[in-house]
Design brief:
231 residues, mainly beta, five-stranded mixed barrel, 6% helix
Length: 231
Amino acid sequence: MTRRDLLLASTASLLPLPAFALTQKKTVQLRGTVLYSYFECSDLILRVTQVTLADGVTVALDPPRAKRIVLADLDEPPVLEEGETLAVTGIDLGRGKALKATHWEKAGSVTPGEEATVAEIAPLSAGITLEDGTRVEGKRLLTLTATGYGPGENGQWGDKTKLETTVGYGTVAVDPRVIPLRTRLWVEDYGFCIALDVGGAIKGLRIDLGHDTDEAAALVGRVRRKVLVLG
């Protein structure tokens, strides 16, 4: 299943929470795993396995339900990977709609005691197979929003990166909170590269792919790409 298929499937499964959990305009806490993280980290789909209602009653969901979480109004939206466990507190916007988050924290477990029987989503395999059959192993496999930039699109930095190298193919800009500078990477449909730059718009699950010319960079557009963190 492709990431697009996963998004469509998760959106189609945005079912309302059970009748006992109808707490429109009231604060609830949802606990589960991240099924899909949208561009800019402003929204996500949470695979909910546990609901804590406004009166403190906690209920396990089996089967789990998908719920859209709105993070845009938070001062510091979380940088999240698919499969991470999360506890989100917020205001339920109504039956079948989103939860507007007011607080979030990464959770150690999504298992609400012995009542739950829901298996966690398996993490993405940290490895890729190249077209020639070569297997490349890494530390993490991410799915990021990718754009392109060239030496003439770097503002006050001109053709220089944050680490004073020259902007070009094989140099990428990242959010250091997600991928540290000097990290070696492999990017789908781009190849091997290294994180040597940052950017004002490159926040969260974003990556900017360096090119030798601005014209080549413009052809990238705005796409989702798998990124293997090599180290």
